[in-house]
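Weekly modeling sync, notes
Attendees: S.R. (lead), two postdocs, one rotation student

Agenda item 3: backlog of single-chain predictions. S.R. asked that every request posted to the team notebook include the full sequence so nobody has to chase files. The rotation student volunteered to paste the first one in as an example of the format we agreed on. Action items at the bottom.

Example entry:
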Amino acid sequence: RKLALRELLNVRPSAAMDLWEALWSSGPRDEILAHLKDHSLQALGYQDYSARLATRFPDVLPPSVVLVAATAHYSWEKIVRALGIGSNQLLFIPVDDRFRMDPDALWETIQHLTARNVPILGCIAVCGTTEESAVDRLDQVLEVRERAWNELGVAFHLHADACYGGYAASVIRAPGGGLRSAEEIRASTDAVPDADGSRWPSEAWVRAMAALEGTDSVTIDPHKLGYIPYPAGAIVFRDRRSRELVAVDPPYLTPTQGLHSAEDLFLGRFVFEGSKPGAAAAAVWLSHKVLPLDATGYGLLIERTAAGARRLHASLREASTAPATEPFRLVLLPEPDLNIVCFVVTHADFRELAQVNALNEGIYARMSLSEPGATPQYILTRTRFQTPMYDGAIEPILEALGVGSQQAWKAGGAAGLVVLRATVMDPFMAEDTGPDHVGGFTRALLEEAEAALATMAAAPGRDDG
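Predicted structure, as returned to the notebook:
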């Protein structure tokens, strides 16, 4: 039957690829290529393609959108700009107080868009945010997508941005290829308990990591939790035929034996660079040989860094109420899903958010490589929690700091809330043996807080308590 435009834009990804493959069996290759050149989005571009849709279909729809977790990497804005989609079409889905995409908010957004006939190009969930190492509940996001199809007839591509946390999937992978249970992982990791008495990883974390296999595509960066130098990177498609949608065939390597012939293994058909050096790929291959992608290799390494992060979090939590910490106070974000510990340092006399931000900027300046020649004993990074991305997570942090309302934070705009970040890459920080870097970090942090406060007090025209 003849489909309406809305129905055509909501064909499920696997069905769309079935149609694509059937197309190549419908006639001579040269004729099919000629038709694609005359009618496909890849050949026509957005402007001409949209104009043709407007003349072909009476029910022209609003511009399509891309849904993304509010904590997603800034590169997603670059991507939609580069593709011509436009950054205004990137819709941020609120996160919960653990910095994970809120599945209920995702469902509400899909309902709202469907009521307005707005097509959804895709949804990006995050497996390990760059700021907090939070892992979205991918299993619940998949459930929302299935519900959208069953109840609303809405289909879209689901991508997992696992650039940071993708290697953590090796934690749940047994050497034989099966899945490990949360109980089994907890027994081998033996991480210190969280504030509520639970231990890493939770059942929910394991389900989220296992749900990676249900997404349509995954990106991963070996230079992060893979501990491999730049510039290796990968995108993995659930349906390998998806690569053909962006393939460009050079005349000297035109496939002659169908979609899955030996020639289609030429990587240059699918990537911007064309020919690529092999050293980065060789580095990844060698690392995977040394550290297998299971619980005996990368899984063990990442388990230990996660346990080290929990040990650091527990130490900072204990220090936050210790008399020796006064007049400073540490406000910690929730325990991380992976290995990034986030916190804010404040002072007993501070009542304004600007004071807290100035203190933490000062600490960051002293514990980072931001100044030429700096050699800090411990290195921190910092980020800013800004509106609207962190609207769903900021209130308990502001309450703990005692420095104003969410409305005041929003009014601050780009200033946001300065948050310090400690990334635990050393697997030995989980152990009690060897140098006490957990205690050393805490002592160094308080020393630099004293120095930063003194600098604030000495600044002309400043009275920050």
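Discussion: group reviewed the output briefly. The chain has 15 helices and ten strands.
Action items: rotation student to repeat for the remaining queue; S.R. to check formatting next week.
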